[in-house]
Amino acid sequence: MPVVKVLDTHVTYAVNGQGPALVLVAGTGGNLDSNWAHLVDPLATHRMVVRPDYSGSGETTDPAGELSLDLLAAQVLAAAQAAGADRFDLVGFSLGACVAAQLAATHPGRVRSLTLLAGFSHGQDPPHADAIRTLAQSDPQRSTRLRPADPADRLQPRFS
Q1: Which among 27-31, 65-69, 72-76 has the top mean pLDDT?
Q2: What dihedral angle (degrees, nearest 10) is formed by the CA atoms of 28, 57, 98, 71?
């Protein structure tokens, strides 16, 4: 399995297929196989599918100290770059949705599209609030598409 070094961490990742790049970011307790293996073959017929294991998952080593969304997003970006993906579609599941949102907010020129699956519905947790706020501030026009059109369906923001 390929490995890319990010600071003091060796990040493992898998690459399958050829074509436009698609980066799949697993959720808490998952890894590149447990969350995504069942989708790889059909997707890889037309796409280059990159599946990184960020710190805390798979065979990726954990750095000393606290983990942050910035660090996890940097690990995902490094795996995508090492795989040869300059621009890519990005899908995040659970905690991977937060990591994907952070990556898209901090590197909008790299992310062609962003899909967040089973992410967090509000920003009560400070790291998640920061990621949502950063995403909204990076491109206010695009972030309005994340809000439901019907005001009755909107969640009230819990952060400023």
Answers
A1: 72-76
A2: 140
Distance of CA 33 to the CA centre of its chain: 15
pTM higher than 0.85 for the full model?
no
SS3 112: strand
- Per-residue b/e over 117-153, b at no fewer than 16 CB within 10 Å? eebbeebeeebbbbbbbbbbeeeeeeeeeeeeeeeee
d(CA 58, CA 144): 35
Per DSSP, the three-state class of 16 is strand
| CA distance between the termini of the chain | 42
DSSP string covering 71-82 = HHHHHHHHHHHH
Q: Over range 72-95, report the average pLDDT.
A: 96
Cα separation values, 14 from 47, 76, 80, 111, Å: 13, 12, 10, 19
Give 43-89 as a DSSP string: HHTTSEEEEEE-TTSTTPPPPSS---HHHHHHHHHHHHHHTT-SSEE
Among 127, 126, 7, 105, which Cα is nearest to 65's?
Answer: 7
